[in-house]
């Protein structure tokens, strides 16, 4: 058996155990509910008949369809009514539908032939959405890396605390053990946000936010590699923190720096997301780039090369932290007398490896 | 090729304190080797080094003449002193998992697990979470975990601690089977009476050094003065005046005595017969505890 097979066995066990964990299942279900609610409810709540500006001559069929009709003298006045926000849409000669950023389906379908839709400002982002999206990205990264990072630490401590680690280390390389845990954590984290994404996309389609979906698409696509590397970065720190202690109760003491490394970027992105300079800096810093960079892409502020450079920086940081985490893990895994200092763990390798 | 697990000149220090000094001994295939020593003598450290859980500072461990590799060690069975399995996993699932980690296929691991749980009397608790088992049953699960991959070599740190007498018998039975099948079995224990009953060979460690190693009989003859028990009909106090005799215990007609080196026991028997009937006269083999006390001094 080689290290790869050992890694797979370890990862499979971690996943199996987690999938039976009631807390994990419930929290996943709650996430899915939130994702569904956040995407399906707002369009439903903002529903009700659209107000349509139209000349009196053409108003008949629209009234018949149950729409709120705002009678205007001519097409220019109709367009002005849309721009002023007096009407959600206007029907003008052609016939054509005018709207600001989203064509109201009820208006379009009220016309017997589906007319071409001309959007006056197609790229505008709803201010509510503009606030929610950064929050959602930061929140997902924060919660997920926290949840699964802690899980990796706990699993390491459990093995240390029960001393089963001695049997494991006698059978498989220490690194395979760590790799298996990291792999399982990553798969579970990606699986969970994947499910959330599927539900959110389905919700947007169902709740008729198709326009938002096409805007968010690239940001979500880029979020995946950023998330992956960002997760490895954070999880490496959790692994090292877990290996330093012997009892679950002691994790608080060593996890402070890790918590800060997750929390500070989270709040920075939440509070500074409308500050262009701050966001540019944050989008390059490894701990905040997983959320800040996809966001800048979403707001149309990031060039393609910036994404690549930021991702490369994150890759280097994640690789560095992974190696350092592995070394601390190896150096402290079998020290079962009290807490190991990070310096001792770094200097001495106990096992044959 | 000899089927011997051999330690050769193993040293190990922790933070400047040397806990193993030039440790060398053999564990021979097909024999049960007891490993005894006081607390902190170095038993656990030695076993961890055999399993590669700890690195030796110097010296080496060989199996069948080859230095140990990870692949070779994967075919070892190990039971650490401070036990533990996953509390929240079922017994069957984790024993199977450990079998797979030791290189068995999923199928083979499942089959081996079922057989072993049956053997150690846990078949009916197999699907229970480990944490719901009594300590004794957890211990049986631990034995199953050490044996699931049908190891070539067994290294067990205190396998009997925490076991009730019935479970001790079960475990002893399982270990004897493995030894009979040709595996070297090294086990440590504080319970010298169990070691006495069980081991073929004995290694005694004290303060990080091997003080004695060899078969039980060799050690008995090497480390004790000849001792005899005599039972006569009247008071046996006259033994006190026999040349070369030092009384260990005198209880009326029954006496236990040591003979000085080079003294023959037959003249003592003749002297006893001259005084009257002799009901019993036999050599007393010293208990392991006595040898241990003698050697570890």
From TrEMBL, chain A:
Signal peptide: none annotated. One of its GO terms (cellular component) is membrane. The chain crosses the membrane at residues 23-45, 128-153, 183-207, 219-245, 307-329. Residues 128-326 form the ABC-2 type transporter transmembrane domain. The keyword Membrane applies. It is a multi-pass membrane protein. Keywords: Membrane, Transmembrane, Transmembrane helix. Its main location: membrane. It is found in: Membrane. GO terms for molecular function: ABC-type transporter activity. Coiled coil: none annotated. InterPro entries: ABC2_TM. This is ABC-2 type transporter transmembrane domain-containing protein. It comes from Micromonospora sediminimaris. The lineage of its organism: Bacteria, Bacillati, Actinomycetota, Actinomycetes, Micromonosporales.
